[in-house]
Design goal:
This protein has 508 residues and is of the alpha+beta class. It has 8 helices and 33 strands. A hairpin with a 7-residue loop joins strand 8 and strand 9. The protein is rod-shaped.
């Protein structure tokens, strides 16, 4: 009876044995090696076997770490069977990527098994120094240069395809690649290249531009660097003048006396009273004489001045005696030179007087002597105190009027332009108007030359007797001067002030 009972107990244990799964994972480590980031992908297989006697239920899979992927869905492995899963490595940067595959069984909150993952992403890495370039606040119009470096901080060759400077208006910021080769550039690991950004501000506005740098950097195939700056003005300069109460001027007329000049001499004589009345209305201290284009001596040996009994009548009389029997090869500049260089004009000059020469001809200047010979003479005798005017034929076509043609006034015009002065057309029908304008220009100062040769135009301000003047004047860059309209010219005794900033690039 006891033996039966014992045997009965053993059979009951065998019958009630519990079946269980057993998870086996291989390999324990996956090495994906080195891959070119952004271009290469590699898969490795993990085998999950069931060494137990019951179904192995995998709830889900999870990966810790970047650039690794796996299908997270769960599955069942029967007893004595296995299941393979694929893990993909797709590096995107230059770095060592470590990870871990966690395997979760059904009902477990923590992973039961795992696989160590190891891989390397090989990549070029573009580094721009500085990524944000600040030129600061240089002086307006000054050129500032800064170096920009690009470097390969990766472990494979960096290929720079292009660098594009985005448009900026005005184009104050530019790139200078110097002697660098054309694109593309190839930089080995740790190699660097340098180029330059130049900044020359042309206005007071803030300047901001971008540089788009494209390369094979997988993480940043397009890097945008910035460059900015904002100019400051130099200290303002103030110049002051006092309009003279009375001008002191010596005037020499050089009049063409060739055969074609009869109508023009008549026009001058008929309108000379307008010139003299306007001129003398400013109460000048003056003297005036006439020579011709083939004789350096004063016509009739006469000098007209403020003490003459009737200056107007005397001037008209002299003009009437000039005649038209002179040479057809008009040598106006040469005759004036001879008159100055030891001739009557030399004895005529006063040290405190401005010398004014008025050339009137329907031809160009002939002869071996031209403006290049005259300029050093007048600059020696009257430095800064010589003003030439002209009543001549327009360049380059000349003109036609009063039944006569006038040739372009070459030589005379060159001289006038050298001194930034004025000329009028000999074919003009209104000689009264042009002689009136000439008399006003001679009689009262309308041109005020600036000391600085490089003023910033937008900063120029003008005051007359302390009152701001926004109209009635212009800045003439060829003369580097403020030029008033003759109707708006300051009156004798007026105080003229001009303020401006310069483009100078000296010390701040």
């Amino acid at each position: 009876m006891l033996l039966f009972a014992f045997l009965l107990g053993c059979n009951d244990h065998i019958i009630n044995e519990i079946k269980q799964p057993e998870i086996i994972v291989a390999p324990a480590t996956l090495d994906f090696g080195h891959l070119l980031s952004g271009h290469e992908t590699r898969m490795r297989t993990v085998t999950i076997s069931n060494g137990g006697t019951a179904d192995l239920v995998i709830d889900h899979l999870d990966i810790q770490g970047d650039n690794y992927t796996v299908d997270p869905a769960g599955f069942t492995v029967e007893a004595g069977s296995y299941h393979q899963i694929e893990i993909t490595y797709n590096p995107t940067t230059f770095e060592h990527n470590e990870g871990f595959l966690d395997i979760y069984l059904e009902g477990d909150e923590s992973p039961s098994e795992g696989v160590w993952l190891d891989g390397h992403g090989d990549a070029p890495i573009l580094t721009v120094t500085p990524p944000e370039l600040d030129f600061g606040a240089p002086l307006l119009g000054c050129d500032t240069t800064s170096e920009i470096q690009i470097q390969n901080d990766g472990n494979v060759d960096l290929i720079v395809d292009d660098i594009v400077l985005m448009a900026n208006i005005p184009a104050d910021i530019t790139i200078d690649f110097g002697s660098l080769p054309p694109f593309p550039w190839t930089l080995a690991p740790s190699a660097r290249l340098a180029f330059f950004a130049n900044y020359m501000p042309l206005d007071e506005l803030n300047d901001l531009t971008t540089m788009d740098i494209s390369s094979n950097d997988p993480l940043a195939p397009l890097i945008t660097a910035t460059a900015e700056g904002a100019a400051v003005l130099s200290n303002e300069t103030i110049q002051t003048w006092i309009q003279k109460e009375k001008i002191v001027v010596d005037i020499v007329w050089i009049i063409d006396n060739s055969g074609s000049m009869n109508p023009y001499q008549n026009l001058l004589g008929n309108n000379m009273d307008i010139f003299m009345q306007i001129f003398m209305g400013y109460s000048p201290d003056f003297q005036m004489a006439f020579i011709t284009t083939d004789n350096p001596s004063f016509v009739d040996g006469l000098i007209i001045n403020a003490r003459s009994g009737d200056p107007v009548a005397e001037a008209v009389h002299i003009i009437s005696t000039i005649g038209i029997w002179g040479s057809g090869f008009e040598k106006g500049i040469e005759m004036f030179m001879q008159c100055l260089d030891g001739g009557e004009c030399y004895r005529f000059l006063r040290p405190d007087a401005t010398l004014v020469a008025i050339f009137m001809s329907d031809e160009q200047n002939w002869g071996p002597m031209n403006e290049t010979h005259l300029i050093p003479v007048v600059d020696r005798l009257k430095p800064g105190m010589f003003v030439p005017y002209g009543i001549i034929g327009p360049v380059p076509s000349g003109c036609f009027s009063h039944g006569w043609s006038a040739q372009p006034g070459y030589g005379y015009l060159d001289l006038i332009q050298h001194y930034n002065s004025q000329w009028w057309s000999i074919c003009d029908n209104d000689w009264g108007a042009q002689l009136e304008e000439m008399a006003q220009n001679i009689s009262i100062q309308t041109v005020f030359e600036l000391d600085s040769e490089d003023p910033h135009v937008d900063t120029i301000k003008v005051w007359v007797n302390g009152q701001a003047q926004t109209t009635g004047w212009v800045y003439d860059p060829t003369m580097n001067a403020i030029v008033f309209d003759i109707e708006e010219a300051p009156e004798p005794g007026d105080t003229i002030e001009v303020g401006y900033s310069t483009w100078g690039c000296g010390e701040e």
